[in-house]
Amino acid sequence: MNTTLATVNVKDILKKANLKVTPQRILILEVIKNSGHATIEYIYSEVKKQYPSISIATVYKNIHSLYEKGVLREINPRNDKAFYEIAIHNHAHFICTVCNTIYDIEPCEKTVIKQCFKETPGTISELEFNVYGVCEHCNSK
Ligand SMILES: [Zn+2]
Ligand SMILES: [Zn+2]
């Protein structure tokens, strides 16, 4: 069975990554899970509702260790701050240049991806790229 974001258990993710399961980390991952893609500022504002004394530095430190363990993936839109998402499955991102919304887009088959590039200095194992455009919502305005 394929794991999807909806069925993912954040405690299991932490255990699998050999990270201590703390209430703060659970909450951080829940916030990211529920929003799909979230900035540190957004995560901080949500976590603060339950832990008013938490500092942004603590949130940042936790996100950084989650990122280093491969639990989170970082998305860097060229005109915006970094966003974080739970690294469940490999996909690319469509970023709207009008509303800055980030959409997940599914890559084509691995074999097709390989054919997209004439030459690579090694075997492609993962894909990480952003495409830019105007989303349908903004297009219809
Ligand atoms: Zn848009
Ligand atoms: Zn995504």
Could you characterize what this model shows?
With 141 residues, this protein is of the alpha+beta class. It has helices at 10-16, 23-35, 40-50, 56-68, 110-116, 136-139; strands spanning 38-39, 72-75, 83-86, 92-96, 102-105, 130-133. It has two domains: 10-86, Winged helix-like DNA-binding domain superfamily/Winged helix DNA-binding domain (Arc Repressor Mutant, subunit A, Orthogonal Bundle), CATH 1.10.10.10; 92-139, Ferric-uptake regulator, C-terminal dimerisarion domain (Dna Ligase, domain 1, 2-Layer Sandwich). Helices cover 39% and strands 16% of the residues. The strands form two sheets. Strands 1-3-2 form a three-stranded antiparallel β-sheet. The longest helix is centred in the N-terminal third of the chain and has 13 residues, at 23-35. It is globular, with a radius of gyration of 17 Å. The model has no long low-confidence stretch (mean pLDDT 90). The structure holds zinc ion (2 copies). One zinc ion is lined by residues 37, 85, 91, 93, 104.
